Structures are given as structure tokens and as C-alpha cells.
Amino acid sequence: MSLEQEDRELIVLAASGDQRGFAELVSRHQDRVFNLAYRYTRDRQDAEELAQEIFLKVWRHAGSFRGESAFGTWLYRLAVNACLNHRQGKKARPDPQSLAGDLVAGTRPAADEMIAAEREAQLKKALDVLPPRQRLALVLASFEDKSYEEIAAAMEVSVASVESLLFRARQNLAAILRPLKKKGEI
Amino acid sequence: MRCVKARKTISLAMDDRLAPAARAGLQGHLQACPSCREWQQEQSWLAGLVRTPQAIAPSLGFHAGLMTRVASAPRRRPLFAFTLPVLRPVALRAAMLLLLVFSALLGFFLSGRLDAPAASAEMAAFSQAMNLDAFADAPAGSFAAVYERLLLGELQ
User: What share of chain A is helix, strand, coil (3-state, %, to 5)?
Assistant: First the structure.
């Protein structure tokens, strides 16, 4: 049986209220969903919260999966929508140390880690300023190896809109970070 | 090529979305425009920056925490939950068709039993009130002529 067929069987089980089937489905997809959330939020705690919200939506709406598309596509679209609707935690959690740990996992000297952490914190601030659609388009294009057509389908916009979102995201990000780069702060 | 167009083209090139002809046009512009060259270099630097962090795994407690929330999460029971997901559109259409047929049958039976007596009784009362028999010999033509005669008191 293919992975897709197994996913379909598991989502049918989940739709009937089978928590063990749903747990298996989560195990199969949690890394992918969590990493999308993490790259979007750039904060482990926010990402875990967002990824859990995504899976809770899957649980609540499992019955609405009609099998017209692959389960992965359905899940991805749901995750993308959740990212767009996500509001960052009210409490600021810069936590550069843990971010640096995520980045390099102890393979760099401490000074480098500090620089990487500072850079990451500045980048996160800049990304937080971008409109959610620009930010999401940038994340999908940079990390997920998605074509413009796939991004357009996931975000429910046209390919021309994806081109425009990416250009504006890059332009805005450059405008925000340029002064910091010139001052050597990033 | 103008700078705005060139920068949009650079953005496309970064995602390998550029046709060879457009790439050649961009190269021509970049050779002549130091500002756009700088923008391109800046974008390459930014792309590297944005591509961090690398993939990581969720914490060990993620799965257990989620399943605890799932156990207490209310569920929205879908319409036609008793059917297989693939059959739900069919079930929905069948239900709509049944509703339509039922409405048509109900309308058919009720129209014979309720509307007709009410309409005939109402019409009889109206005829009596208007004394329409008095107009039986009214000249063929228009209501205007009858109305005028009525106003002049020629008709009772």
C-alpha cells in the first residue's frame, strides 16, 4: 500500500474519531508541518504552538477531507492558511541562545554562535514587519522547494501574485536590513 | 530595461523562473547599472540569510502534548458523517433531489386543497361587491370607458 493510500485510510479513521489513527497520521507529518511553522515564525515555541493548532484543525475537520486531492496537499493548504492567520505570541521571546543552538547545534565557537544568534534575531524582527502573505511566499519559495504554481495553489492566489509577493518581500526585506548591514549590525 | 523591471527580473532569476532571452536582457542591464548590480548582490546575501535555519525536529513532548489536546478537543461532526468521505457529495446531492421532489409533491397536493376554494370564495365575494353583472352590456373596449360611465353614474 502506498503512503498516500495509508494517509487516506488514517484520515478516514481520524474522521470516525479514532485517536490512534490520528496519532499515526501526526507522527508521519509532524516534522514537515513543524518545520513550515518554524520557518514561518522563526521561534521554536511559537512554531510548536502553531503546528499543534494545525493538527487540531486536521482533527476537527478530518471529515471534510473529500479525497479530491492528495492528503499532503490538503494538509499543506490547511497549514499555509493557519500560518497566514497566526498571530505571534504576545510576549516577546527573542531567545537568541536557543536559536543559535538550533542553527549550529554546538558546532561553532561561542563567539560565532553569538553573532549568528544576533543576526537571526535581527532577521526575525525584519520578517515580523513584512505582511503575512509576503513573508509566507518568501518562506515557501526559500525552504519548501515549491514552484510558483504550487505556492499559488497553496495560497489560493495567481502565479502573477506570487511573483509580485516575492518581489515586494525581497524589496522590503532589503530596505529594512540595509541600514543594519551598513552599520555592521548584521 | 528600466531598473524596476530589472529588479523584478532578478527576483524571478533567484527562483530559476527566467527564460534565456530575459536572462540575456538582464545581464545587459546589470553590466550598465551599478545600482542594480548592488541590489542583486544584496539579494543574494539576503537569500542566504533567509534560508537559515535548517530543518529541526519538534520537541520530544510535542506529540504527547498534541494528543492530550486532541483528547479534549470538541469535534465538528460533518454532514453525512455516516458515509464514506468520497460518497458525501453524492449523499448531499441525493438529499437535495429528495427535498426538491418532496416540495413539488407537497405543492401539488396543497394547491388543489387549499388555494382553489379560497380563490373561488374570494372571487365570488369580489364579484358581488363590484356588481360585475351590471357591466355585462358594457361596450367592448377598455376599462377606461367603463370607469368613465361608472363615474358619471350611468352604471350602478
Answer: 75, 0, 25
